[in-house]
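Can anyone check this?
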Amino acid sequence: MVSVSVVAMTLTAIVGEARRVQDTWGVSEKVVIAGVDLEVGDLVETADLSLHERPLAFLPPDALVEIPSDSDVAVRSVRAGEVVTNRDLRSTRDVLTLPAGHRAMSLPLDASVPHLEAGNLVELHLVNDRFGDLAVVDGPQMAIPALVVEVTAQSVVLAVEAERVSDVAATQTTGRIVVALR
């Protein structure tokens, strides 16, 4: 009989603590939380996200309440543990908007460009045709990351970091650009 009383007292204490927490923080809701740091352009898989209870009073109004079923691309940086909103991700099936600090650039498609779809991440390698080697831009050879925004029959529209647009544009006129799918 004593053990039943101890169990009953323990359950009463647990329920009381739960009510105290709810009174303090309010009602909670399961929302999508980033399990890893997400950077602009990252392909986000379902394994990168999880559902966790958070106090409703502290949630943004556009917090996701379900993990997206298809692959999405991060259009804003989200730190691990943060609530994911519908402003943070775009479906790879949608036409993507430009991330902050990026500019849209169009490159002609030819046989050397791999099959691309909106949402793909690519690297742009700048080649100086006069010397036949990779151009040296701001020091050592560097690939320029870009996000595929749209693909047409003749060209691909890429989101390129604003500070790299002039490098890409200059190479379009004096050399060539090799596109590598990441």
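Reply from J.R.: I decoded it. The mean pLDDT is 81.
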